[in-house]
Write a structure and sequence with these properties.
The protein folds into 2 domains: 137 residues, FAD/NAD(P)-binding domain; 201 residues, 3-Layer(bba) Sandwich (FAD/NAD(P)-binding domain), CATH 3.50.50.100. Helix content is 32%, strand content 21%. The strands form 8 sheets. A 5-stranded parallel sheet has the order 5-2-1-9-20. Strands 13-12-11-17 form a 4-stranded parallel sheet. The structure holds flavin-adenine dinucleotide. The site of flavin-adenine dinucleotide (FAD) has 33 residues, from helix 1, strand 2, helix 7 and helix 10.
């Protein structure tokens, strides 16, 4: 079986992944003399930075997803196939997918990353919740709400504690944003939804193995965020490794035990390469080793960009941070470099322009830093809102997210506390 891609007489570039890198690359090649085929296992682009708001009922999933077919309507030289890539046959320039095979002239791997559970066995990690894509965020939303429903029905106080407590592992931006959102829900929403549950007994724990939250940011911002999450009553455990979880109780390296059925793992990601490359091309963090042009080492016509790519530069000895701006900028660069390659011109090396970083903790509170300037509080929070709305793909999503936030802000509510697809008590 093949993917029935029409032959246009142009060289064919196949991009695997319609994430931040893949769509930026495609946009840049609009109307160029090259056929662009995008493959993705989902038919939508996902704006991952707002997944935690879907998981906590603040935003509907459709407002952070954008149909890739709609995106491709604007690319006359582009074509999309919903396909999961299984492996690459670089010798024959062929891609094997779950719906058939496809030949390429140029190939870009933009497959992003997956959760890294490090040394945890599948049995243990299988009991933890993750939040890397929309189905997982919806699972988390259902799981938390199903646990509250179950807590109403139990007379066993110890079981009730397990059901309502939530632990988050990982004190990076995702962990602190989630902790803030959950803290806000516990304060403003849950006691009204479940008046029979005593939410003063609900514990939200945030575990971080390092000595501060937001380890990649300035220590002053780490201290601010620590205060913000503690203001929400979140119990923060620094220098604390979670070493085990049996589905009811988690254990830390120093022997602490915490009762909780919900353990959300946000403590690591690793590259998500497709199979078919020589083992020496896979660098630390399971990322594909690329040169300064984003070309996979040892291959003339295959590139990798974004989270899945590891480009070691003096300033980035372990590769660039796995964040959206890196993927976007590498997408732009590779578009230019492929066009240059087509015309026999010299490629340009990648220079990362770091625009800074930010994180929010509940309403009115955020931290940001860029170009040596650090800021916290309300202004940083407004900047966070603005940057996230503007970065969303699609006008409708910008509008729905803005309206959703306005509603949440003025009503102190999150109306999407829906168990659409049960996760814990799956329907037959
Ligand atoms: C919860 C969370 C919060 C985040 N917050 C921020 C933030 O605040 N700021 C920031 O800059 N970054 C943030 N990030 C990181 C950011 O989302 C990533 O760095 C960015 O998405 C990487 O872009 P990418 O194009 O490399 O991959 P992705 O955007 O992950 O896209 C990869 C695409 O490849 C597809 N794919 C994967 N494997 C296959 C396959 N075998 N076949 C076909 N398709 C495949 C996937 O479906 C996906 O569409 C966050 C990430 C998460 C998970």
């Amino acid at each position: 079986m093949d993917l029935k891609i029409p032959s246009t007489g142009q060289k064919r570039l196949v991009i695997i992944g319609g994430g931040f890198g893949g769509i930026e690359l495609t946009k840049r090649l609009k109307n160029q003399d090259i056929q662009v085929v995008m493959l993705d296992k989902h038919n939508y682009h996902c704006f991952q930075p707002l997944l935690y708001q879907v998981a906590t009922g603040g935003l509907e999933p459709g407002s952070i997803a954008y149909p890739l077919r709609k995106f491709m309507q604007d690319i006359p030289n582009g074509i999309f196939r919903l396909a999961e890539v299984r492996n690459i046959d670089a010798v024959n320039q062929k891609i094997h997918t779950d719906i058939g095979d496809l030949n390429y002239d140029y190939l870009v791997i933009a497959t992003g990353s997956t959760t890294n559970f490090f040394k945890f066995s599948k049995e243990v990690s299988g009991k933890m919740m993750q939040m890397k894509d929309i189905p997982q965020a919806l699972n988390l939303r259902s799981f938390i709400l199903e646990n509250f429903e179950e807590a109403l029905l139990t007379y066993d106080e110890s079981k009730k504690e397990e059901l309502i407590n939530i632990s988050i592992v990982g004190g990076g931006p995702t962990g602190v944003e989630l902790a803030g959102a959950l803290g806000e829900m516990r304060k403003n929403i849950l006691p009204k939804d479940y008046p029979e549950i005593d939410f003063t007994k609900m514990q939200i724990h945030l575990f971080e193995s390092g000595d501060r939250l937001l380890g990649a940011m300035h220590p002053e911002n780490s201290a601010k965020v620590l205060k913000y999450v503690k203001d929400f009553g979140v119990e923060v455990w620094l220098n604390t490794m979670v070493t085990d979880f049996d589905g009811d109780v988690l254990t830390t390296a120093d022997g602490k035990k915490v009762k909780c059925e919900t353990l959300i793992w946000t403590a690591g990601v690793k590259g998500n390469p497709v199979e078919g490359f020589a083992p020496e091309t896979i660098a630390g963090g399971n990322r594909i080793s690329v040169d300064e042009y984003c070309k996979i080492k040892g291959y003339e016509n295959i590139y990798a960009i974004g989270d899945v790519a590891s480009m070691v530069q003096e300033k980035y000895p372990k590769g660039h941070p796995m964040v959206a701006p890196v993927a976007i900028q590498q997408g732009e660069l590779v578009a230019d470099n492929i066009l240059a390659q087509l015309k026999g011109k010299a490629p340009k090396p990648f220079v990362y322009f770091d625009k800074g970083s930010m994180a929010t903790v509940g309403r009115n509170k955020a931290v940001m830093e860029a170009k040596g300037i650090k800021m916290g509080g309300f202004i940083a929070w407004l900047a966070w809102l603005f940057v996230h709305v503007m970065s969303l793909v699609g006008f409708r999503n910008k509008i729905t997210v803005t309206l959703g936030w306005l509603y949440n802000y003025f009503t102190y509510d999150r109306t999407l506390r829906l168990i659409i697809r049960p996760f814990k008590h799956k329907e037959e």
